[in-house]
Batch of 3 targets.
Target 1
Amino acid sequence: MSELDLHTIYRDYIDCLNRRDWASLGQFVGDDVSHNGRPIGLSGYREMLEKDVRDIPDLRFQIDLLVVEPPFVASRLRFDCSPRSTFLGLDVGGRRVVFAENVFYTFRGGKIANVWSVIDKGAIEAQL
Amino acid sequence: MSELDLHTIYRDYIDCLNRRDWASLGQFVGDDVSHNGRPIGLSGYREMLEKDVRDIPDLRFQIDLLVVEPPFVASRLRFDCSPRSTFLGLDVGGRRVVFAENVFYTFRGGKIANVWSVIDKGAIEAQL
């Protein structure tokens, strides 16, 4: 798996999320994927994303920084969106918030196998 | 700047922090460093670290994941420590907490020029 491959695969994965193309998610995410140490599998991963989009209809993933060293990808994602009600336990209530997610992925066989994500909750609190 | 160099430099930087060797910090951190968009400079960076160590005497930086693609370094750091009073606005009060920081660095001339850090505040809240 070359670095070029993982750059391209990751950008295609983000495009997939922004298209809400859940049927294609399995091209990028492994069947046995774990998220923050929880083995949720592809179906759980899809459910998590579908819930995110229900809670945040204008959710859009924007890559601010992308660092690739196979089999790892690290990405700083930027969000500028309006969660409808609560988000991360915060009562956002439709207000627009801008925040980052710093996230690490391990790839296996060209697909995401592990995700370690931290969302900047403090930045959201500061905007409420 | 090769990848090997940045791996080594970064590990040496973390060793410097764990030794509290503030006099050597300028070997790793640029004079004009920015932290989360704030241009704090080397002196501000050192003050930030000195305050962290006052607030958390048993603070120790442990690298869980290290992803290098020059000029970028991405690191997932693990902390297992006991902040003395408040931390990130949370009343930790000496309790032991375990949490991660997902952090991106841009290097320039072999030194840290920009830092984009997110600490897992939600994980700490869940332990209080």
Target 2
Amino acid sequence: MVSQIQPLELHPDRLFSSDPKQRELSRALYKTVANLPIISPHGHTDPSWFANNECFKNATELLIIPDHYVFRMFYSQGIKLEDLGIPRVDGGQVETDYLKIWHIFAANYHLFHATPSRMWMDFVFSEVFGFTEVFCPANAEQFYHTINEKLNSDEFRPRALLKRFNIELLATTEGAGDDLVHHAKLKGTGLEKTVITTFRPDDVVDPDNWKFQETLAKMAGQTGEDVHSWNGYLNALRKRREFFRQHGATATDHGHPSALTADLTTAECEKLFATVLSGNATAEQKELFRAQMLTEMAGMSLEDGMVMQIHPGARRNHNLQVFQQFGPDKGCDIPGRTNFVEDLRPLLAKFGTASDLRIILFTLDESVYARELAPLAGHYPCLKVGPAWWFHDSPEGMLRYRHNITETAGFYNTVGFNDDTRAFLSIPSRHDVARRIDCRFLAQMVAEHRLSETAAFDLAYDLSYRLAKEAYQLTK
Amino acid sequence: MVSQIQPLELHPDRLFSSDPKQRELSRALYKTVANLPIISPHGHTDPSWFANNECFKNATELLIIPDHYVFRMFYSQGIKLEDLGIPRVDGGQVETDYLKIWHIFAANYHLFHATPSRMWMDFVFSEVFGFTEVFCPANAEQFYHTINEKLNSDEFRPRALLKRFNIELLATTEGAGDDLVHHAKLKGTGLEKTVITTFRPDDVVDPDNWKFQETLAKMAGQTGEDVHSWNGYLNALRKRREFFRQHGATATDHGHPSALTADLTTAECEKLFATVLSGNATAEQKELFRAQMLTEMAGMSLEDGMVMQIHPGARRNHNLQVFQQFGPDKGCDIPGRTNFVEDLRPLLAKFGTASDLRIILFTLDESVYARELAPLAGHYPCLKVGPAWWFHDSPEGMLRYRHNITETAGFYNTVGFNDDTRAFLSIPSRHDVARRIDCRFLAQMVAEHRLSETAAFDLAYDLSYRLAKEAYQLTK
Amino acid sequence: MVSQIQPLELHPDRLFSSDPKQRELSRALYKTVANLPIISPHGHTDPSWFANNECFKNATELLIIPDHYVFRMFYSQGIKLEDLGIPRVDGGQVETDYLKIWHIFAANYHLFHATPSRMWMDFVFSEVFGFTEVFCPANAEQFYHTINEKLNSDEFRPRALLKRFNIELLATTEGAGDDLVHHAKLKGTGLEKTVITTFRPDDVVDPDNWKFQETLAKMAGQTGEDVHSWNGYLNALRKRREFFRQHGATATDHGHPSALTADLTTAECEKLFATVLSGNATAEQKELFRAQMLTEMAGMSLEDGMVMQIHPGARRNHNLQVFQQFGPDKGCDIPGRTNFVEDLRPLLAKFGTASDLRIILFTLDESVYARELAPLAGHYPCLKVGPAWWFHDSPEGMLRYRHNITETAGFYNTVGFNDDTRAFLSIPSRHDVARRIDCRFLAQMVAEHRLSETAAFDLAYDLSYRLAKEAYQLTK
């Protein structure tokens, strides 16, 4: 491993094909979209940042500890999560010397060669913090102090960064029981249409969710409904959706283990709900309940116009020891197969032909792109394919997405890019990667005479900006 | 969306790599196959066209209404099938103003950017009708009238087009109960060896087929067999195969939901058949019956030498509302997973080592190319891999096919190209796409020194022409 | 088929991209690794070759009859295995005229166009035997006699080839009951650290293995343990692992039908083992036993430090007739789906967080690369992804591997290349293909500004040499 200091240069042609014809076309296309405002309709930044506008405190705390994309790689190489300062659920001892953690980061930065994490991080170092050297052990401490210093300045406060990043819209994601105080605080600041929430009811529709009973009780208080009757429960959800819409939400989000949907009778629903509430539901009954709730949510979307996002297929907390010691979202969610064709049938039989319903499907199982998602979205009026997600939110992942989706679903059954991130500083970089890869794909189509140049310029704009706004009804 | 008129030019290098070395090799290879006669051994054109040789009537009626590749895309964007003139099964009101439908087509032509439908349609506009402008709302009406005028001329009669398209052989596909009057009418015209039929018995071997009982009864009349006894039923099928062979058929075709096969005893078959006839068969029994019938058909192929095609994996009529209102083949068939390795075992255990049996396997599940189909066809003497099919009959689909199949199965366990289309005018375009993509693939292999240039020229000919003739025994 | 004689030239740029920029970078990278010693930590060469150092006898016997990659292709085209001299299990008549078989090989050599078998064989003809013409019917006999003559010379004895091939380490694979006489014979020759064994216990942990009872009995004699008690059985396995380590083994290998693991109680294990021994175990019980044994083997690896390799997913002997007539390893193993995410859970729940355990996962189901293996290896400390395997040990297979694995698992959760071959003469060629493809991949990353040139040179060395040594603990 060479650790001598090298210049950090983000090459203007990065991620473009090295074929001269394609590269030139990519450049021309990219030039027209590079500076478009960012639409980020799905993500996980913390709304308190924008509500309170306090300075971020520390490089390690901001860039490593919350980012499971980063620390999972270190963990895979035998570095303990405790040594990376990841908090234990039992409050047990973990490393608190942030500089020491930062040095681990530097010493292992080579693990990220050719990964998106490396690309995002280099962008943050170069474009956000202005470094001109490649991060390495020799300059790690200097980076650390410089970053901390900058974070402490007004130009690096969350709202200043929102503006500097040219973010036109940023949707956060909150659980159904959230009181949305941060979004409420934004009202009247001029940012209430910039930072909006998204309704994510997993904690009250998934009996396996660790906060299920707690959130249910909370929702009872918030809505005055009898959440232990099926009808009251549904009404409570309706009221919560309404509350979220008052805080800007245009969309809901659903992160189920599978894409299973169901269409039970009201009597069956009432019985199943009672079983779920009793705490005696079997795994199958819980899965059926989640399935029914996806269909209920689609029905409510038809009522209130909210866009529905389904993010299925993560086998959450696959490493049970890590989950028990460190809690959820610690890099041990692993994708599994998803069967959209069979699983979505009940929902689609009920609502599939409604052209005023909008369901955006995401997947962690790329084998479904050409086989299932493109044919489904290329037929059903209500279905759109969400962008390459999570492990596949990467140059190769995005290329596979376009190459597999486009011929059957076209471009207009897709919805632009989502960054889906809690790493606020990486947002410009992530959108930049998506724009570059889309331009690269379009350039290839033009270079191979499969698309006209005129159309490519229109599409570059649509994929970078317009489709996201339209798909999430942000133009209203 | 720019709608100003642009020149329509089919670039001579379209679909080739933009890498200069590969492009030049592609050109050289393509030049030797571009004008070879078309062998179309599997498709769905209407034999009455060639039997009666009447003029096609109308652009909309010919190019939009029968083409579910086209109208499914419009439907996915919220345009009603009624507004596209798709006939309802109840005879209910649909749009009959063909020019109005044509305008919808023009207004939404951009939906097809970078799809094969767009490529085929541009070819038809340019090469078949001689247009020099890109189709758009501004010239839509002119296109419409010009096409209708041309369709009304002798040069655009079906037989004239057959000749102009340089079609050496065209196989249509008919159900087991079809009386083949159109093929009979071709006898003595000199076209009886050009337009042949294919035996597709789905309607009498699939108890879920809506015409099952009807076709069974018809077959009884046609063959004089007791089709309600297992033995009589099999004999009736033998006679129908013979009748189809008398009308040129060299192949059978089987479009089952899965690739499942079975090898039951005669007693089990008799019992299962009786259950199926009773109308009380469960879903599993019906699946088992289809499975057994694939094995029976393979056995009959060994007897009579017909090539067997298996096209499994379409989840037919996934959108039940559309099926109920508009019938089958309305763009709502969705692919699903297919498990060739387990499903074909019983058939292969019985007939797999017979080198005088020929079974051509197609798939809608590309994940099986490298994992299942190439290893199976690279071992079993009776198995060949059919070309990229349906949703995958596209530039990207064909490239994935060659990249995934070749290293394990080679080229000689594949069978050339099928267009599988009911869109007669698009046939030259579809074969042109296949030839270009094959030449592109071969050019890449040569450019990367993985194949000799000499071999590439041989293979270009084989993939474009020879293998299809041999695989379907059209040289006899 | 052109059969005129053509010059045989292995182009120095073979397998590199034809893009000039990428090609030039590939050349520069490859130049630094082309002559590195070969580390072959997993393969199936015969240790008696190196122990006895006798001359190989015959071209057909060495290059065709044992190589199921080769004869499966001929079989798929209708050539009988008997005519290729493949021995029957019943000792029945097969072709013994090796020159006649060699002529079949020549007459059908075109079947391998663009396959890895062709690439390996051309390399053997050119680099190992020095031929300057492409193999074809016209020179087949000359090739045959020249090869036989060379094989009979001292320079072509196994140990001379080991040296000439620059093989630093070669691991063979032996069953648990093997007495390792050939490895014992190597002690004191200076080759005992060059040719080592690998512990493959399938024949004593898989009740479906045809040698299960036989090997169990043998192991009883070898270890003095009561192999019919659960505890004695485990101790016997421990002793055999120790015996293998004394003959150089650093790794174990497990070729199960699936990746299923289990974590039963001791009482359950004892009961299951008794059922297995009784010969009355159901298919499910046998699968559960194999599953439990993977977990037991992982536990023993933690005890003794051996690296564990899991090669799941082959549906062995799919063509039952061929198996019955010719035995195992006759080209009729077909890949199937593998579900690593669910199947490995029990083992990982028990040992997954141990950073001093090393499990290398291989797959025949490429759909799991990005969806399962990269996320698993990019998280669990004990897991690494083995190289592209068997049907996927090919240029395209290796490219898919890197493109699908790297972004989530990085390079450092992979383990370099394995040739996995019994075709000794092809070993240099196989490693050459792997090095070229890795350099090509790295060159693309550099050309697209996704990786620095400095890092690419480090990685070329690591992927070609260092990672294999480290992963298999060959540096100790």
Target 3
Amino acid sequence: MDDFLKIRRRPEFRQEIISNNLEIVKLAIASSVSKDTFIIQAISTIDDLDKLCNLLTRRVREWYGYYFPELSVHIEDDEIYIRQILLKSKEEFMQEFNLKVSMGPKLEEKDLEAIIGLVRSVEQLYSERESIIHYLKELMQEHCRNLYTVVGALIGAKLLQKAGSLKHLSQMPSSTIQVLGAESALFRHLRNKKIRPPKHGIILSHPLVMNARRDMRGKRSRQLAAKISIAAKVDYFKGEFIGDKLKEELEK
Amino acid sequence: MDDFLKIRRRPEFRQEIISNNLEIVKLAIASSVSKDTFIIQAISTIDDLDKLCNLLTRRVREWYGYYFPELSVHIEDDEIYIRQILLKSKEEFMQEFNLKVSMGPKLEEKDLEAIIGLVRSVEQLYSERESIIHYLKELMQEHCRNLYTVVGALIGAKLLQKAGSLKHLSQMPSSTIQVLGAESALFRHLRNKKIRPPKHGIILSHPLVMNARRDMRGKRSRQLAAKISIAAKVDYFKGEFIGDKLKEELEK
């Protein structure tokens, strides 16, 4: 016993314990990164890229607009606008839209090249966004297949993001899931009961709610939230695949 | 005369006049786009790209950080961080920094591929930013060579952007140029005379002002603004190249 105490007091011993402990903790931290984390990172990145693409497309509409202002009127969708610029020249567009004179001046090769370079970058961002969506879908299919089947990849991932993890989402009552993402409206209601509570948060963008009549939306989102809650619970406890059944019940 | 009036009243005649006028106006608009416009567009795009690169690099630091958190501590510069990730693998980094254990877990090929895809996009944005800076330099050299020589491409373009055009910049008194970009501080001073007026706006980032002692900065920026004002006037009226002389005088 005395020997042991002596060993313990030796500085090398302490240091070894500390360094071993540190490595154990590092490994523990390493193993705490779960698939949830990547789903949340992926959906956050998609949100970021959305914002950036919008910002840069606005810039392109302004800059390319000096060269060919008429195009912005003819193509409203941002992504199509960007891709079309890379495909066709101004002359081809003018033939296509039956324009005789453009309000934009002729540009030197160098000026046009600078704009097109920017357009190419924006297109590349759009492609990157798509490939991350693709990756997100794969992740969701593996990790929370039921949730994915009921609401799709984007809405499912956003719910996960708001909840923080699949575990938290699975523990939430369906009424919370229903208003997830509408927190500001919910608290406005809680502070002042005269203001009605929100009927839907993130799940508003689900087609079942979106395409419903206005007075049916509350009911639809309640039903949808109930199914999401079941799906999340089954996913978390690695249950069977029941997404198809849930979806069928919803559509009825 | 009567014949002429008859012709004028014919609807085809009116329509022809209208359509001809329209085309003339379109051509006039086309020719109103000057080099100024492109300089301003280029510098705005560079600003945008700066913002985006920051945002995306923060995202990468978070996402890649789950895989290899130690790297963010070792490389502080954003651009180098991004470029290094593409050059080396985690194992190589760990050897380089003498790390035994990483707090990040091993990832599946697919997960890592998604992150690297994003990193590649960010790197591409950095390159795009550089090529637009290159383009801006060329533009400035052609269009306002004196201004470019005195303050460089980025500061010169920012002054142009704030002023709206080279014409406006050339008409400004040098005291206005001195505080261009510090409007909020200037108006704070004008509302409340107790607050001192700003000593410099955009031109603060010029090395002559930046590297001066604190109490010398006001003087330096006044001198610099005076030279900028001369340079802009000469550039606008397409005078000779006197940038070298102006710069020399400043450096004395």
